[in-house]
Amino acid sequence: MMSSTRERQAESCLVQLAQRGDVPGIQYVVVGPAGVEFESCCGTTDVYSGQPVISSTTFMASSVTKTLTAAGVLRLKDRGLLDLNSSLGTFYPSHPYNADIRIDQLLNQTSGVPNPMPLRWLHLAEDHDDYDEDEALKGILAQHAKLRFTPGSKYAYSNLAYWLLGKIIEQVSGLSYADYMRTSILDPLGISSDEMGCVIKKSDQHACGHLKLRSVLGLLMPLMMSKEVFAQTAAGRRRFQPVYMNGPAYGGLIGTARAFSKFLQDQLRSDPVLFSGETKDLFFSEQKDSSGRRIETTLGWHRGELSGIEYYGKPGGGPGFQSNIRVYPKKAIATVWLANETGASEGPIHALTDSLDRHFL
Q1: Dihedral angle at the C-alpha atoms of 98, 103, 107, 110, nearest 10 degrees?
Q2: Is the Cβ–Cβ distance between 8 and 28 less than 8 Å?
Q3: Is the CB of residue 189 less than 8 Å from the CB of residue 182?
Q4: Are 70 and 275 in contact (CB under 8 A)?
Q5: 208 near 44, Cβ under 8 Å?
Q6: Parallel, antiparallel, or unpaired for β 59-60 and 122-124?
């Protein structure tokens, strides 16, 4: 177990975040190979109601989803159902790009697929039953039909690349993305539908997304988004209606920090549940572009360093929420936090994570 001094320091940091109003509410979990080593929940799910965040409160995970989508693809590879050198066109022939884009290039963000601003890629939860994801994706691809560069030649982040990976998962598995993730990732890890999924399972346990009124984002985002996604303001913040990402594979998972910690715990095991040791090594393997230059991502993780210690992580930020996950292999720990405040820049997300994680390194 972690020392009580470190736990008190981390707890104090989390409480201050909520009390200062940096975030309305936050969950933070530190996990090792044997299970949870530290867990804290602070603040409120909604500044209007003041309902406290508890361990069962769910948050939108935003781009943290991408790492689990990558795990879903690698699980298909591990089962012999998919070759990472295969072409996108083999599984999604209607894509508009006149180039051979490989699956591994989609995973490591060297595909050249454009990255249009996804602020409008939302729909109300109450409209989800009538939402047509395939039509939405076709429309986005038609609007952004030109690659940014030759696939493999360099790194450039793309939400759209991971939306396409979700379509590959569906084509190979014969299941919807949500059903595949349930049966092939979440169920094997013992993560219940109440803890994580692609829909809000219990509305009374789901955090409300927030946006500070007195901020650059608070001024700009309402001008770029549909008014219907906003609820009434309270305590100096715009509040969001319950919404879903249009493409679940790039940012649509909804869950608790404890649920994400179960996924992270599996990455720390010498004998993981999700895939073989060989595929796990591939998941974290160094990637290079076609010129042999090392890039900042693996096949699903971003690489970084804190206090001289290497980590693999994935920040997430979007309308109403922000998050981060990290694995520190040499320390045999992993961390996750989820918060219900809009995040659009990786810098502040990493800074918050650094301030919390350094207590446990």
Answers
A1: -40
A2: no
A3: no
A4: no
A5: no
A6: unpaired
Helices marked H in the chain — which ranges? 4-20, 65-78, 88-91, 103-107, 133-143, 159-173, 177-181, 216-224, 248-251, 257-268, 277-283, 346-357
CA distances in angstroms from 348 to 108, 158, 322, 323, 344, listed in the order given: 23, 20, 10, 11, 9
For the segment 178-191, the average pLDDT, to the nearest whole number, is 98
Q: Is residue 3 very low, low, confident or very high in pLDDT (cuts 50, 70, 90)? A: low
Strand bridging mode 196-197 / 59-60 = unpaired
Three-class DSSP category at 38: strand
Question: Cα(258)–Cα(191) distance, rounded to whole angstroms?
Answer: 9
N-terminal to C-terminal alpha carbon distance within the chain: 13
Calculate helix-pair angle for 159-173, 65-78, nearest 10 degrees: 40
Which one-letter amino acid corresponds to residue 78? Answer: D
Domains of the chain: 4-360 (3.40.710.10)
Length of the chain: 361
Contact of 62 with 318, CB cutoff 8 Å: yes
Is 305 in contact with 336 (CB distance < 8 Å)?
no
Query: Longest Cα pair distance anywhere in the chain, in angstroms?
Result: 58
DSSP 343: -
3-state secondary structure of 97: coil
DSSP calls for 49-66: T-PBP-TT-BEE-GGGHH
Q: Do residues 9 and 357 lie in contact, with contact meaning Cβ atoms separated by under 8 Å?
A: no
Q: What is the reported pTM?
A: 0.96
Which strand (E) or helix (H) includes residue 317? strand 309-318
Question: In this structure, is the dihedral angle defined by the CA atoms of residues 182, 188, 191 and 196, taken in order, positive or negative?
Answer: negative
The separation between CA 236 and the C-alpha centre of its own chain, rounded to angstroms, equals 27
Write the pLDDT tens digit of every residue in 22-38.
999 999 999 999 999 99
CA–CA separation, 176 and 317 (whole Å): 24
User: Could you give the CA distance from residue 150 to residue 111 in angstroms, rounded to a whole number?
Assistant: 8
Instruction: Please report which confidence band the pLDDT of residue 344 belongs to, taking 50, 70 and 90 as the band edges.
Output: confident
288 close to 295: Cβ distance less than 8 angstroms:
yes
Closest of 305, 296, 284, 286 to residue 154, by C-alpha:
296
